[in-house]
Predict the structure.
Amino acid sequence: MRINKVLLLMALILFPLTFVGCDKKEETKTVDWYMAPENKAALEAKLAECRNNPGELKDTPNCQNAALARHKLFARPAGVPKF
């Protein structure tokens, strides 16, 4: 009977620990964050990651934000040339 109590106690203690660290949710970066010049490497890395696994990642916030940031960076008007 005492062994059952010990096992039950161990199970109650260890069961919640099985879920610690399982949720490796990535912090969501904004479009402006990806557009910042200092984050260019992170933008390129995220775009490469999203292209490599579009089936799972294309609808994630970071893939969508990185794609929109890329679009905004390349869609900027060149401006009027100064003479």
Remarks:
- The two ends are 93 Å apart (CA to CA).
- The helical segments are 2-17, 31-35, 40-52, 54-57, 61-74.
- The CA atoms of residues 5 and 11 lie 10 Å apart.
- The chain is about 65% helix and 0% strand.
